[in-house]
């Protein structure tokens, strides 16, 4: 957390001037800085979705974790 929190805060600060749109599942076309779930911006939700799904695929492929 000591390393990742400053990076996320820097991204929040840096992406305020960045004007881009992304197609999100269930939300449609949104700007990256638009708050989707409460105060959480769309880029952070997209990062979490991609990170969780990719880690599940890698865990399944390498047969790591689980019972």
Explain this structure to me?
With 67 residues, this protein is α+β, with helices and mostly antiparallel strands. The protein has one domain. 48% of the residues lie in helices and 19% in strands. The protein contains two helices and four strands. The chain has a two-stranded antiparallel ribbon. A two-stranded antiparallel ribbon has the order 3-4. Strand 3 and strand 4 form a beta hairpin. The longest helix is centred in the last third of the chain and has 21 residues. The chain is globular, with a radius of gyration of 15 Å. The two termini are 28 Å apart. The model has no long low-confidence stretch (mean pLDDT 86).
Topology of helices and strands:
Layout lengths: L3 H11 L6 E4 L3 E4 L3 E3 L2 E2 H21 L5
Antiparallel strand pairs: 1-2, 3-4
Q: State the low-pLDDT regions, or none.
A: none
How many beta strands in the DSSP annotation? 4
Proportion of residues in helical segments: 40-55%
Structural class: alpha+beta
Classify the beta-strand content into a percent band: 15-25%
What is the spatial order of strands in the main beta sheet? 1-2
- Main pleated sheet: 2 strands, antiparallel
The total domain count is 1
* CA distance, first residue to last residue: 28 Å
Overall geometric form: globular
Average pLDDT confidence is 86
Our count of helices gives 2
Could you state the order of secondary-structure elements as H and E?
A: HEEEEH
Q: What's the alpha carbon Rg, rounded to whole Å?
A: 15 Å
Characteristic key phrases:
alpha+beta, 2 helices, two-stranded antiparallel sheet, 67 residues
């Amino acid at each position: 957390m000591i390393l990742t929190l400053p990076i996320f805060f820097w991204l929040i600060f840096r992406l305020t001037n960045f004007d881009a749109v992304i197609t999100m599942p269930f939300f449609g076309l949104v700007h990256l800085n638009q708050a989707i779930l409460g105060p959480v911006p769309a880029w952070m939700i997209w990062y979490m979705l991609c990170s969780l799904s990719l880690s599940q695929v890698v865990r399944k492929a390498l047969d790591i974790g689980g019972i």
